[in-house]
Amino acid sequence: MTSSSCVACILAFMCTAAMVTAATTKQPLTRGRNVLVFGGNGFLGADTVEHFIRNGDNVTMVNRGNWYWDSFNRIKPYVRHISCDRKNGIASCDDLVQLVNETTQFDAVIDFSAYDEKETKDSGVLLRGKVKIYILISSDSIYDVCDKTHDAKTKEKDAIRPEDVDEWNRLVIVHDYGHRKLRAEEELVGQRHLDGGYPYVILRLPDVIGPRDSTYRWWMYQLWIKLEKGLPSKPLTIPHFLVDYHMSLVYSKDVAKLLFELLQMGDEIRDEAFNVAYDSTWTLEELLRAIGKSLAMDELVIAEEKDHTKSLYLYPSVRRGPINVSKAKEVLGWEPTPFDEAVEEIVTFYEDAMTGETFYIQKDEVIQSFVHRLYAENRNEFYDAVEKVYNISLQHFRPKDEL
Ligand SMILES: *[C@@H]1O[C@H](CO)[C@@H](O)[C@H](O)[C@H]1NC(C)=O
Ligand SMILES: *[C@@H]1O[C@H](CO)[C@@H](O)[C@H](O)[C@H]1NC(C)=O
Ligand SMILES: *[C@@H]1O[C@H](CO)[C@@H](O)[C@H](O)[C@H]1NC(C)=O
Ligand SMILES: *[C@@H]1O[C@H](CO)[C@@H](O)[C@H](O)[C@H]1NC(C)=O
């Protein structure tokens, strides 16, 4: 991914995600459940697929065939992969059609790549009668197009569009992503009501944090914090409008584990939507301080920036505020990794990625993304600081000296 597409990706947010440990144990595909995954190569999806294959499940991934980060080694050898672009309709993907034909029933379908009703409709047509449980990965951004009538944390039952047509339209125009994600949900629910469809579970996630995030959101903040003292022309700031804004977050690894556990649960989870996030919420400043603490930088100076174009605005991606997760706790036994532990794991991953060789492509991309967004006028000052703090060479970014 180039830095400009990365920026586009950040703006579109909710690009999916992946996880820390490498697949060390080769599980032969001789036992386990038959799981069909749409997407699964993004940040969250790859973590999930890894969790399933490590536990011996038989995973077939359906996507366009991009292997991000180290997933070519971490995941590809252990799954069946079907190359398919859902934009063209899955019925045009012969290998998938054939697989479905040969399969009596999938133990689960996990859908990471439904961004509109088209995808859930197509799946409904092709997979009808063959799915034990269909898990749709949705987003808390769907609440941005709904009519929330209270100030407490958003609950699942707040997912109701406004009755007023003008308001309905206004929200849809402002929040296109949330609108489409909600249409994907509505289609799935509609099929169930119309003719039985298949049992489903909808998970509504807030911003996902974790290693291998191709939006580089976390990594850019981590870099900025780490370079705090070394960047005189760009001190650490947060946009003023986020000063008091509390956001929900979820850790990719926890969602992967939850998805695995969902398949062992009974009827109580069927045909339900669940908010899945940490119970606690954080302001952006609190999040940056948590990253700083993990980097042994306890005394961060963080200023408020009135001109938000001069600061990074990467979290949060929704405006309706945090979500209430009591339903997931009660029904699913949801119990995420302690936040400090998650932060530690994520910070360690990106620090290692910065000094190691494995992720040299991503390292170059995050550096270029940072320069592009914040340091275009004084690149060399930035490169100097990175080289000094991490003891790495960025010679390849500097103009060649005349010989
Ligand atoms: C794993 O799944 C693929 C595709 O559904 C199938 O061809 C294969 O037979 C399965 N393997 C096992 C051991 O179930
Ligand atoms: C599905 O399999 C049956 C045989 O079991 C075959 O007759 C049929 O043509 C197949 N359909 C597709 C779409 O491959
Ligand atoms: C979340 O919802 C539950 C159940 O309705 C309620 O008891 C609880 O107070 C809510 N929590 C917050 C933080 O709003
Ligand atoms: C920096 O890296 C070089 C090798 O690239 C190494 O020789 C040197 O000891 C390192 N310096 C520090 C302070 O770690």
Structural commentary:
Residues 1-22 form the signal peptide. This is NAD-dependent epimerase/dehydratase domain-containing protein. One of its GO terms (molecular function) is UDP-glucose 4-epimerase activity. The protein is α/β, with parallel strands linked by helices. The protein has a domain at 212-248 and 282-319 and 337-403. The protein is 40% helix and 12% strand. It has helices at residues 3-12, 43-54, 71-74, 94-102, 117-127, 165-174, 176-195, 217-226, 252-262, 284-294, 326-332, 339-355, 360-375, 379-390; strands at residues 34-38, 58-63, 80-83, 108-111, 134-139, 200-205, 207-209, 237-239, 249-251, 272-275, 303-305. It has a seven-stranded parallel β-sheet, with helices on both faces. A two-stranded parallel ribbon has the order 7-9. It has a two-stranded parallel ribbon with strand order 8-11. Helix 1 (3-12) packs across helix 13 (360-375), helix 2 (43-54) crosses helix 9 (252-262) and helix 5 (117-127) runs parallel beside helix 7 (176-195). The longest helix has 20 residues, at 176-195. It starts with a helix and ends in a 13-residue tail after the last helix. Mean pLDDT is 90; it is low at 1-30. The chain binds 2-acetamido-2-deoxy-beta-D-glucopyranose (4 copies). One 2-acetamido-2-deoxy-beta-D-glucopyranose is lined by residues 29-30, 34, 58, 60, 80, 99, 103.
